[in-house]
Design goal:
The chain has 2 helices and no strands. By secondary structure, the protein is mainly α. It is elongated.
Amino acid sequence: MGDDLVIRKLKFTEVALESLENGNRESAREEADADFALMSAELRVLLKRLKEVFTLSKVE
């Protein structure tokens, strides 16, 4: 994340990428589905964390 709070690049951890390499997929479509599922889950975690960090507390 830059000084302007823009995320320009994502790099997935080696642990996440290794789990993709160990799978037994028979077709390119299955491989693409597995890649998408894993990366979507990782992105969901990132977005949840960003929401926690940048959410303003409610005024009471």
